[in-house]
Design goal:
By secondary structure, the protein is an alpha+beta fold. It is built from four helices and eight strands, in the order ββααββββααββ. The protein has helices at about 35-40, 45-60, 115-130, 165-180; strands at about 5-10, 30-35, 65, 75-80, 95-100, 105, 200-205, 215-220. The longest helix is centred in the middle third of the chain and has 17 residues, at about 115-130. It starts with 6 loop residues before the first strand and ends with a strand.
Length: about 220
C-alpha cells in the first residue's frame, strides 16, 4: 500500500485464528502498519493516535481502529528492515508494528476535483474538528509537533524558495509573531487538529446513482 515514510500492507486473515481479542475475522482484511524508527521512538506516539481513532469511531466517523494482538496490546516494537531507517535514532532501531481495520476506497488525490468533492472534503474536516472537541488530550499535552503554533518562528529556516512579495509577506508575519502571538499564547484556546488532512489521507468510493451522474461517498479519514 502507498505510504509516505512507513510501510503499509493490506492483508487477509484466515477464519481460523488464535487471537482471543478478535471475535470475527473481517472479510475486508486488515492494514498492517510498520512505522519508521524515528516515530516509533517517540514516547506515547501510538497510544495517543489509537486513542484518537477509537474516539472518532465512537463519534460515528469512519476511520481505522487498532486491533489487539495475542498479548492484548495494540502495538509492539520489533526489529524490522526498513528502507528509510533514520541513522540518527539512538539505541536499537525498533519499528512500531500494529494492525488496524481495513477500509476500502481510493485516495481523493486520484479523482478529479469538483465543487461537490471539495465541499464534502471541507465538511468532513468540520465534522472531524467537532468530534475531537471532547477528546481526552492527556496523551497530547507533552507531544511536540512541528506544526504547533509555538514553532512558527522556525519557518525562517525554510524560506529559500520564497522570492519577492511572497518573501516580504511571510517575513512581515514572522516579525509580528513575538508581539501579537507569543505574548498572548497563554490566553489562546488549545485544541486537536488532524495535521495531515491531505488528499492522500482521505478515501472515497464511487457510488452509482440511477438516472444521475455517479457521486463520491467519503469512506474514511486516515490518521
Amino acid at each position: 500500500m502507498v505510504s509516505f515514510d512507513d510501510q503499509n500492507f493490506h492483508i487477509k486473515a484466515s477464519k481460523e485464528h488464535k487471537n482471543p481479542y478478535i471475535s470475527q475475522i473481517s472479510a475486508n482484511g486488515y492494514t498492517l502498519k510498520i512505522t519508521n524508527t524515528l516515530k516509533s521512538s517517540l514516547e506515547g506516539n501510538f497510544d495517543s493516535m489509537h486513542t484518537s481513532m477509537i474516539h472518532l469511531d465512537k463519534k460515528g466517523m469512519h476511520t481505522p481502529v487498532p486491533v489487539k494482538n495475542l498479548g492484548g496490546q495494540t502495538w509492539t516494537l520489533e526489529r524490522v528492515p526498513l528502507l528509510n531507517e533514520d541513522e540518527n535514532v539512538p539505541g536499537p532501531k525498533l519499528c512500531g508494528v500494529r494492525l488496524l481495520t481495513y477500509i476500502s476506497g481510493v485516495p481523493v488525490s486520484t479523482q478529479e476535483y469538483t465543487k461537490d468533492l471539495l465541499f464534502q472534503w471541507g465538511l468532513l474536516l468540520a465534522k472531524f474538528h467537532y468530534a475531537v472537541e471532547d477528546l481526552d488530550r492527556q496523551g497530547f499535552e507533552n507531544k511536540s509537533v512541528f506544526w504547533n503554533l509555538e514553532h512558527i518562528p522556525e519557518l525562517r529556516k525554510y524560506m529559500e524558495g520564497l522570492k519577492g512579495q511572497r518573501l516580504k509577506l511571510v517575513r512581515s508575519v514572522l516579525d509580528r509573531y513575538p508581539s501579537e502571538i507569543e505574548k498572548n499564547m497563554d490566553r489562546l484556546p488549545k485544541g486537536i487538529i488532524h495535521g495531515d488532512f491531505n488528499e492522500n489521507n482521505i478515501l472515497v468510493q464511487l457510488k452509482p446513482r440511477k438516472r444521475t451522474k455517479p457521486y463520491f461517498q467519503w469512506t474514511a479519514c486516515l490518521i
